[in-house]
Amino acid sequence: MVIENLFLIIVAVSNLILGGLVYFNNRKSLVNRVFGIWAFSLTLWSINSFLFYVFGNSPSASLLLGRLLYATAVIIVVTLLYFTEIFPDSINLKRRYTAIIFAPATLLFIFTIASDLIIEDIAISVFDNKAIFGPLFILYALFIIIYVALSVFILIRKYQYVQNNNIKIHIHLMLIGIATSGFFGITATILLPMFNVFNVDKFGPVSTVFMVGFMAYAIAKYNVMNIKVIATKFLGILLSFVLFINLIFSKTASEFLINIIIFFAGTIISYLLVKSASAEINIRKKLENLTSKLQIANEDLRKLDEKKTEFMSLASHQLRTPLTSIKGYSSMIKSGDFGKISSEQKEPLDIIFMSTENMNNLIDDFLNASRIEKKRGFDYNFVVDNPINLIKEIIDNLSIQIKNKGLKFVYENKINKEVKIKFDNRTLLQAISNLIQNAIKYTNNGSITVKISRTNNHLEFSVKDSGIGMTSDDLKMLFKRFFRSDSVKIDYPEGTGLGLYLAERIILDHGGKIWAESKGIGKGSSFFITLPVVKE
Ligand code: ADP
User: Around Cβ 370, how many Cβ atoms within 10 Å?
Assistant: First the structure.
């Protein structure tokens, strides 16, 4: 008996401390307040159970305490149900709904305390006092069981719907706590007593410690954890208090002097501890705040980016249709399908044809970029072959432009043996052409040097120019989608910033590498591609 009562006191104190910690952790939060009230009613339940034993010999006290015991259980289950409804975001329930929860509980509470319909009397016995249930006790039993079952049901629903994994874990913990305590509590204090078994009824209040423990942990976790500060404060005050008592009971003057020093030292250390704990929590809070803001901003950006890709792909498709007719018809006119054309008409027609060709390439770049973003990428048709002819073809096509711009062109082919790589003709041509076209575009005088060489495992291709060069910051961003350096935006307005982005994708898909070097603005640029050699 003594052991059981000791347990009751320990449980009462633990519930009170846990409830208090959560309550003072954040008094503004409804969840914390309701939890505090709930834990306090559990404390009352344990104390009541203890007093019921202490005053067991007095019939009038026994009856009052017995009724109070059962009435407190009503408060416990109603606050529990309310709590599960508002957890975790302190949801504001509709008034009508709150009334539906609380009205039957209030009635039952009054009937339990002030009538003999629920608890008729207490039969005093040497071994254990027993409650004699009134005619409506069955309603009481149903009420308690339904409210606890509803709480469990609501938490299970929340568990299913909630997205955040942390909260899921907390709800899981709560469910374990409530289900365990609910089962033992109801069995020990309602079901067994209905069959006249009273000797385990104290186990009801004792079992609540599981529930409060699990729930306090869950709430503390959810509420940014300044529970650590509260716990430190609590211990700090306790330490100072003990040292103060020690000081008061000093026997000699010298002992008093030492104790006074110990008291101040202890108090200062406690204060510093609390301060550092709060500082840590504050930093953590700020960090969590920032992280969640960043997450939201990131998500917004991602959505915006998706929309942009969608738009890019849609617009490009729409542009392509009229362009195909312009290109088709201008080609037919050029070749005389609609009658002979004069020599004056030929040049503008050539310009129309070339411009549509350029525009077509531009649209292709946009479409390919949006395909990559949608994770679809290029359609490759890989072959294993010697790429030298392809490179020569590109150079032949572009050398006229190089000469037209008055640039010196150097071509160095250091490969003397047959070399084979695995490549897709169309896209590799696009990637290499882009490097040479850029060199032409961004070089106003000087030279362009194209080199091909091979190491044991790789074919290396490079384009070096004496053009406008790049800063080290440009080099870092070069292969990013839509990147154009500040130095080109005004002087070379034509450009999309997609060429290198696509080239990098193509080279990576070929199992190769692409990179650039430059000593700075005005000091020229070099671009390199390496591709794995296929060995026979
Ligand atoms: P675009 O040339 O259409 O702008 P690219 O993706 O081909 O797009 O190139 C991206 C950017 O890289 C260019 O806008 C330019 O700032 C820089 N760049 C590329 N090649 C060179 C080069 N040879 N010399 C200097 N800057 C270059």
Answer: 20
What average pLDDT does range 107-115 have in this prediction?
93
- The answer, yes or no, to whether any atom of ligand 1 lies below 6 A from the CB of 468, is yes
Residue tagged 């003594």 (tokens): 2
Q: Is 418 left (phi over 0), alpha (psi -120 to 50) or beta?
A: beta
C-alpha of residue 476 to centroid of ligand 1, in Å = 12
- Between CA 533 and CA 512 the distance in angstroms is 10
Q: Which atom of ligand 1 lies closest to the CA of 434?
A: 7
CB 531 within 8 A of CB 511: yes
The residue to which tokens 């006092």 are assigned: 129
Query: Which residue type, as a one-letter code, is found at position 193?
Result: P
pLDDT at position 532 is 96
Ligand 1 pocket test, pick from 444, 488, 523 with the greatest ligand atom count within 8 Å of Cβ, gives: 488
Atom of ligand 1 nearest to the CA of 463: 23
- The pick from 362, 484, 491, 528 for probing ligand 1's pocket by mutation, whose C-beta has the most ligand atoms within 8 angstroms, reads 484
Round to whole Å and give the CA distance between 453 and 533: 11
Tell the residue number behind the tokens 């009038």, with chain if given.
Answer: 60
Euclidean distance between CA atoms 62 and 85, whole angstroms: 35
| Ligand 1 contact, 483 CB (< 6 A) | yes
Place of tokens 């440009």: 474
Distance CA 8, CA 203 (A): 9
Cα separation, 44 vs 198, in Å, equals 20
Which residue's alpha carbon is at the smallest distance from atom 16 of ligand 1? Answer: 485
Count of helices and strands (H, E) across the chain: 16, 9
Mean pLDDT over 465-475 rounds to 95
Between the alpha carbon of residue 359 and those of residues 24, 326, 335, the distances in Å are 68, 11, 21
pLDDT for the residue numbered 224: 43
Question: Which one of 479, 500, 526, 527 would you pick to mutate in the ligand 1 pocket, going by the greatest count of ligand atoms within 8 A of its CB?
Answer: 500
Residue 238 clears pLDDT 80, i.e. is over it: no
Residue 259 vs residues 235, 236, 241, 273: alpha-carbon distances, Å: 19, 17, 13, 21
Asked if residues 428 and 387 have their Cβ atoms less than 8 Å apart, the reply is: yes
Ligand 1 atom with least separation from CA of 500: 6
The CB of 440 under 6 Å from ligand 1? The reply is no
Q: Is-above-0.70 flag for pTM?
A: no
Cβ atoms 503, 430 nearer than 8 A: yes
In contact, 407 and 442? CB cutoff 8 Å: no
Give the mean model confidence (pLDDT) for residues 458-472.
Answer: 96
Residues 52-66, mean pLDDT to the nearest whole number = 84
- Among candidate residues 394, 498, 405, 504, the one with its CA nearest the CA of residue 450: 394
438, 472, 504, 506: residue to mutate for ligand 1 pocket, most atoms within 8 A of CB: 438
Spacing, Cα 62 to ligand 1 middle (Å): 91
